[in-house]
Fold these 2 entries.
Entry 1:
Amino acid sequence: MDAERASGYRYGQRAYLVQLRRAGAGTGLVDPVPLPDLSVVQAAIADAEWVLHAANQDLPCLAEIGLVPTRLFDTELAARLAGLPRVGLGAVVESLLGFSLQKGHSAADWSTRPLPEEWLVYAALDVEVLVDLRDALAGLLAEQGKTEWARQEFDAILAAGPPAPKPDPWRRTSGVHGLRDRRQLGMLRSLWQARDELARRRDVAPGRVLPDAAMVSAVQADPRTEAALLELPVFRGRANRRLVDTWFGALARGRELPETELPQHSRPSEGPPPANRWADRDPAAATRLRAARAALAGLAAAHAVPVENLVSPDLVRRLMWSPPEPRDADTVAAALCAGGAREWQVGLTRDVLADALTRA
């Protein structure tokens, strides 16, 4: 199974093509634009194991059209667990199966209709060898004693469901860290919201409506008239000249916000501070974190697993910043389980993390 989106062209991450391949049935390409409810397909394949590469990228858009697996094999995640140096689909296929996949259309506008023939061939090839790749990876994981690790990881993906919306998405604007004060952040938020509303209405990627860099430069320039705004790069273009009242109005609304409604410099965090501040704020915690990272790096190397797959880095930081009591392996194991770590991760890391907690 695979899906093609129109990232960078359309608003959101909906699927514009779905590719399926099953032994005995061949390859099918489905256009979900005129067929937005594929529950009939779901009924036919729900009992099967679905093989996807980097499943987290495609599962949300597949769920929107009624396709939700009950069993999963993620070839990208399997390649990570197997210790392969490169885990992109083309690299893994070439390494394990000896084939070179056709390239050139991964960043195409898949909302294009009709889809060119060569694009359809490219899309079909993405699922042509996925089951063979799954079998090769399963064999590799079995040789390394990691079959159960992979099963737990795949089950965790299915249990997690769709990702929750990220709070304050405007804070991910490229260049936001160049803004000096809360007033500027308020203006950027207002401009971002105006752009997002327009992009959603037009079904166009927000960056194509107005680039992030243009928004940040407009906030920094703080133009007091529409004419001054039109003097800035990007805003001189024909499209943005027609929208000047929209952009200028958004800047003005942000400029006029009461002080109490301005955003803070950063979102309040429930977790520990950035690790580069630990040495000043809590030297003992910084010592614990260094010990934990060194031990985990050694463990990851010994098992040929990326350290971020061995255990969540955020969970490690939380443990080292606010250690559970008593600081023993059983307590650490309970904290890891509560934080979402899988059984195999807990078994591998509990002792080294408990040891790191005693270093200070």
Entry 2:
Amino acid sequence: MKHRQHGRTVTRQHRRAASRKSSRRRLGRRILVTVSVLVLAAAGCGWYLYDDLARQIGSSHALDKNAPRSAGGATNILLMGLDSRKDQEGNDLPADVLQKLHAGSSDIGGYNTNTLILLHVPGNGGRAKAFSIPRDDFVEIPGHGKDKIKKAYGLAKAAKEDALVKQGVTDHGQLEREGREAGRKAEIETVRNFLGVPIDHFAEVNLAGFLHIADALDGVTVCLKHPVKDRYSGADFPAGKQTLNGPQSLAFVRQRHGLPAGDLDRTRRQQAFLASATQKLNSAGTFTDPLRLVRLLDVAKQDLVIDQGWDLLSFIQQAKNLSGGNVEFSTLPIERFGRHNGEDINVVDPQTIKRLVSKAIGANSDTPAPSSATPTAPSSSTSPTAEPKSGPTSSGPAAKTIDGGGIPCVD
């Protein structure tokens, strides 16, 4: 009898154990199914967001498909920041936005590309390099002659619109669209010829873009060596490390009055802003935070224009590797300051620039470098009394580097 009871006891234990095991299997299957559904939902949401972005973001045909392309999987991206108080359709920005910009009325600024940065992303996954081109560099602009590099966009836009008006075109939208396409094409060609390297993609952002990017990231951290107060840009900051909101960020990157090197210091501020923003993209979990990502995508839709055919989904994946210190920023050197038609300019040596950029990215430039480092003589239209170059970039051709891995302190 006891043996039978013991047998029944063992059987009941086996049944309970089997029941628990079966329950664990069912729970495991439920968890697996739930996780699978969440993964599929997330993937579906990601594709929906990408499809929505692809349909609504500004697209341009300005990039010449027959132009040279980078080899070995590398990518060169030209970033153009327009100093324009207009939206992508050429309409005035809303009054409340203009007030936040602290940049005057919509009639100011024109269509100068006050920010020009070539971003080189190597094909081997190495560290990317970003070259800032000072906006007043005196270069050859195709179809125009020598002028400040920032003017290529606006000059070509105005010329295209004038030609269309002579043909009887009166539609504001058509004039704006075709004018801007001509401007983009001219700026891309000017930079390509000046640097002597291919341009594979480009992105254009308007003045409000800095404001919206900073707001989408909940502020951008910067560091100043000295306190500043400038009524022109609205910059009013203490010395040291601080987090700036959208309007403050725009004032930070626009200030040039009261800085030791003027425009060159403004270029370094743009670099510091971008270095901090790329670092925050990674540290703030932007790529894993759906709400923050949606806010950034909204910024792209209202402030950004890119070349048609650029696979942004692939680049967003690549952008993860560009954040957190994997971008090295530098400013291309100038020879000295000068004057042209009553305006201040940067006198530059195109051959030195080509050689420097080519060496930095490990590519062959389109134009062979000169056999010596003797600077090219300035144009006859440049004042012979040009001032020697001064400021932080005066110690030779090497550009000052700002490391995106930290928060660089700037003037």
